[in-house]
Known about the structure:
Layout: E1 2-10, H1 15-28, E2 32-38, E3 47-55, E4 69-74, H2 77-82, E5 87-96, H3 109-117, E6 122-125, H4 127-134, H5 140-148, H6 156-167, H7 172-188
Helix pairs in contact: 1-6, 4-5, 4-7, 5-7, 6-7
Amino acid sequence: MKNDIILAGVGGQGILSIAAVIGLAALEENLFFKQSEVHGMSQRGGDVYSHFRLSDQPVHSDLIPHGRADLVISVEPMESLRYLPWLSAGGWIVTNSNPYINISDYPPVEEILSEIRKIRNHKIIDADTIAKNTGSSKSVNMVILGAASPYIRVPFSYLENAVRKLFEKKGEEIVNINLKALEAGRDYA
């Protein structure tokens, strides 16, 4: 079993929290994983991405070759398009429909979504609205993770446990909001 995942978005969207949840879940499942992340301009608005390789066998490289990613998880739609060269022929894109417009020449959103729809295996989700409905607009990343969870090869209950571990220091209310967001994303998927 292997699961090669690209995580994408912009700074402040919680990409590294998604990676941490998947990592904690992988540990609970006794899987091997390697992660590489870039967040140099991530203090709000710069692109952030992570290669996350998950396997039941030792993983020798943290970078996913072009055309080999099983999954692109993106909290920002234009960022999902940036990683198309990594997506395998049978891979999935799971992305938010709502852009983070941080540049003056940001393309029309419908053009971006139209390009994503050309990918055979895609899920476009209005994660912002779902997050607000679950109690926090800051939990968009957990909604997206929940929507992508059917394509991540760890039990969903392990992702839930990982959310509990990751957010436990922030208090029970924050844990519950993020769990609710994760479950709402899973329900959407």
